[in-house]
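pinned: reference chain
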Amino acid sequence: MKKTIFAFVLAILSLTTSSAATVSAQDVFDEVNYFLVLNYGGFSSANVRGFADKYQPKLDAACKDKNPCPAESAYPIVDAMIKELDDIHTHFIAGGAKKVLAYFSGTGSSLGFGLDLRVLKESRVFVDGMIEGSSAERAGFKRGDWILGLNGKALTTIEKLFEAWEVAESIKSRSRISVFRQNKSFVIRLEPQTISSLRLPSLKLRDDGVAVLRVPGFIPTPKVGQTIHALVLEAQAKKARAIVVDLRNNGGGNLEDEMAGVSAFIPDGLERRLVSKQPLANFQAVYRQGSIEQVINGQKRLTYKIAQAAKWTLPMAVLVNDQSASAAEYFGLDIQTAKRGLVIGERTAGVANTAVAGVKISDGSFLLMTAAKSVRPDGTFFPEFVTPDIALKDDLELINRTGCDAMLEKALEVLR
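pinned: its structure tokens
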């Protein structure tokens, strides 16, 4: 149910580790510090090299009278380090390596309703989206639905809703979800299903000839970029006159997938450069005619190939909100730089100037850290976020009251 935003992925680093059962708190602490010192390459002014000395006494206190001291004792200490780093692209996910790696590969799955929920002011929970093909979509949920209760119980606090929702999603039993939409209350019955972490783009052609291309993320590679090209070709075959690319709630993903996907809309020659603390990890890539060529240590290497590349030359617009992050931000910036269409919506999350790398920690945790800064061909840094050409709130409450998606309607108006 809860939306997890993973950022723009540079690489997943490998590490040979011992059995989690034998890993101590000191091991976790030492590994996290080692990788931060070795790889952190973001804009934080924190003294990363001083973390080990600064936080070791806190770990010693947490492990006092514990022999051996379990890995879990290090988690609050590591969390404090990450908080001091103050980098929204860097996260420590305790015990979450297996799930994270499955997410990045698109092979993960879990029971769920297929609804993305979002808490708004006054602690109200609204449907922010439905997974394509999920039981929630088939049952008739709509973006903007206000969730009032579950299984006959009014849920008066967000905590109670989350607790009840988690239980309902974990069992193969039909639930009754109370919904409020356009001044009417009703119940939708829904049974959880196995939901794949693979979220590919989808295309819907409207009666007015405008195609809406929804891109929920840029993970896993290379399927997203290839799918975008295939859907653009489909839109062309169906004689679409314009395309709206919906990147709302797109949390980012892989560098090359974003480059491949956006290149279906802009002239060839898109170039991406990343500068890291480790010179050997510096990255340069160029897209031309369906292929991405990397330059590593001065050597060129073909790393991405689309079987049948598309090129959209008709009008287009892009939708973003404050949950559009990382690779989604690059997409918007690329469209603006190429002057290919207007970006409509909210200022984005603010991680467009960095890239991350991930590493599995010995106890099964995962460290996702900013490892590189993104620079333009002229050597200047990318901006942190996308500033829309047309500023407009992604207003779920307005959708709930009127059924009107103001962002989409503005895009359709522009494209007329």
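why pinned: Residues 202-354+372-415 form a domain with the 2-enoyl-CoA Hydratase; Chain A, domain 1 fold (CATH 3.90.226.10). The first helix runs from residue 25 to 39.
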